[in-house]
Amino acid sequence: MDYILKKYLPRVDFESYEDFKANYIVNVPDNFNFGFDVVDDWARVEPNKRALVWCNEPDSEVYEEYEFSFTDIMKRSNQMCNYFLSLGLKKGDRVMLIMKRRYEYWMTVTALHKLGIVVIPASFQLTEKDLIYRINAANVKMIVCAPDRDIIGHVENSLEQCPGLLYKALITGEKVDKQQMTATKKPTGIAIDQVREGWINYCKEYLAHSDVYERPIGTDADVMANDLMTLYFTSGTTGMPKMVQHVQSYPLGHIVTAKYWQCVEENGLHLTVSDSGWAKFSWGKIYGQWLSGSAVLGYDMVKFDAHKLLDVMSHFKITTFCAPATMYRFMIKEDIESYDFSFLHHCCMAGEPLNPEVFNQWERITGHMLYEGFGQTESPVLLANFKWITPKPGSTGKPTPAFDIMLRNSNDKDCEIGEEGEIVIRDAAHKRLTGLTIGYAEYDNSGLFAGGNYHTGDNAWFDEDGYYWFIGRVDDVIKCSGYRIGPFEVESAIMTHPSVLECAVTAAPDPVRGQVVKATIVLTKGYEPSEELKTEIKNHVKKATAPYKYPRIIDFVTELPKTTSGKIKRNVLRQNC
Fold first, then answer.
1. 60 Cβ contact list (under 8 Å, min separation 6)
2. Strand, helix or coil at 202?
3. Residue closest to 38 by CA, chosen among 221, 282, 297, 293
C-alpha cells in the first residue's frame, strides 16, 4: 500500500490534524518526473493496475466506455513521446491542449512531462481573440484539439496572426490492436483515416510510433524537478490573462490535495468534475490521485446535467467525489434520494464557497458531509477540512501543513481571532515551496511576493478553533456606506430562502453609497419573478444576517454565467452592472 507515496513522504499516516500539521514533509528528488516516476513506476510494479476509467454521455449517439491500466498509459505516452520528437519538438517547447475531457489528454500530458515540453491547458470556450493572445504570449509551437467544430473554427481563424504556431493536430477515432492493451474495454474507433484538411491526424500519427521510450538520464534532454512543466492562463478579470508557471515538482504538491483532503483510496475510483482546460483538472483528475494509487473517472460530458452525472456516479460506483458548490446545489434539487450512495465514501468541494444550506441538505440526503477546500491556479489546496477535521458548515477548514499560512490585515500585521485579512503564505519568495507557482511569466511579480510572502488576493477570518471562513477576493469585497460586506455571507443568507436555487452577489455602483449589494438569482421550480418576491427576499435577508447587508438590487435570471467547471463568472456579472 502507498508504494509511490512512500518514496516521497517520510510519513504517510498521521493520528490527528495536529500531528499532520507538525510532521508532514514531502521530499523532492532533483530529477523528479511525473511520467517516469509515477505512471511508469506503477506500470512496473503493478502492470494491470487501473489508472483511468472513461466514458462519454450515457445518451450519446454512440456511447463509449473504456478502462486503461497504467501500462496502457505508459505505452500510449511513449508512442506520443516518439511522435513529438519526430516533429522536432524538444524540452522547453510549448504545446497547447484543447482536448476537453478526451481520454487522450491523460496520455498526452504524461508524454509531454516525460519530454519536458511545457503543457498549456486551454478551455474549449476560448475564441479567436483569446487564442491569438495565448498562442503568441506563450510562444506555442503546436496545438492539439478535440474534434469539436467550434474549436477547429476558432483555431483556423487565428492562424494568420500566430506565425509561430507550427503544427495543429486533431484527435480522431482509433484502430488499436487489442492484444497490445491490458484494458478490459478498448477503444476501437471508426475514423482514424479521416481528418480535416490542413490538420495532422493525431491518433494515426502517434500510433505509428514505438511504445518504448527510454528516459534520457544524464543528457541535455533529461528533465529536472525545477524545469518548467505547465503554464496556466488566469481568467484575466483585471487585465490581460497572466501565465501561471509550475515546475515539474508541482504534482508532488497535490499529495496533500488528493490523499488528505479528497481522501482518495488506493485502487478506488475518484471523480472530480472539471474540464481539462482548468487547473482544477490538475487538482482532481491526475496528479495527486495517481500518486496515491487511485484510478480516476473521466466523464466527457457536453454540459452539466445533474441526473446524468448522478447516473454516471452510480454506474461506476465512484468511491470519492469532488465538485463545485454549484453542482451540489443542482443535485440536491433533483430526486437524488432514489440513488444508492453506499459506494461513496467521501465528498468534497472547491472552486467557490459552500453555503451552509447546501451542506446541510447534502448530508441529510446522502449521509455525507461536504469537506470544503480552498486553493488557486497558482497552488495546491491551501485551506481544507482535512480527513481528521469535523467540518463546520460554511468554513473552508484549516491550513495545509505544506506551507506556513497566515492572515494579514490592512496594516500588514498578523490578524487576531475574528479579524478579516488576506490569506498569505509566509516566506514564499525565499523558498522553493512544492506545488506553489514560481510566479507569472513575463510579468512583474513584486506584488505577488511582496514582503517576501505569497499573496493570494483572497480574504478570510479564523475563529477560536482555528477554522478559516472565506470572505471573498480582496477586490470583491463590497464597500457600501462605510460598511465592508463579503459577498459569500450575503449569498448564504439568500440561499436559505426556499425560492432560490442559486445566486451570486456582486457590487453595483451607486452615486450615494459608492457601492450597493446586487444579487443575481436563479429561482427554483414553482416560483416566478415578481417585485413582490424581490421584497420578500430582501426582508428575509435582513432577518437572516445584519440588515445593512441586504441586496438593494435583485435580478432574476434563468441561469448564471459559469466556466465549464461550474464556477460562477462573477466578473461577467460585475460587467453587466
1. none
2. helix
3. 293
- Give per-residue pLDDT as tens, 274-298: 999 989 999 999 999 999 999 999 9
Per residue in 249-258, pLDDT (tens digit) is 999 999 999 9
Cell triple for residue 569? 463568472
The pTM is what?
0.85
Closest to 185 (Cα-Cα) out of 193, 194, 176: 176
In a 3-state reduction of DSSP, which class is residue 228? strand
Are the C-beta atoms of residues 99 and 171 closer than 8 Å to each other?
yes
Instruction: Determine the Cα–Cα distance for residues 518 and 494; give it in Å rounded to an integer.
Output: 11
Rounded Cα distance between 141 and 324, Å, is 33
Q: Which residues share a beta bridge with 562?
A: 568
Shortest CA distance to 148 belongs to which of 25, 43, 300?
Answer: 300
| DSSP character string of 335-402 | -GGGS--TT--EEEE-SSPPPHHHHHHHHHHHS--EEEEEE-TTSSEEEE--TTS-PPTT--BEE-TT
343-366 mean pLDDT: 86
Q: Which of 487, 492, 491 is nearest to 474 (CA)?
A: 487
Give 144-159 pLDDT, tens digit per residue. Answer: 999 888 899 999 999 9
1-42 pLDDT, tens digit each: 899 999 999 999 999 999 999 999 999 999 999 999 999 999
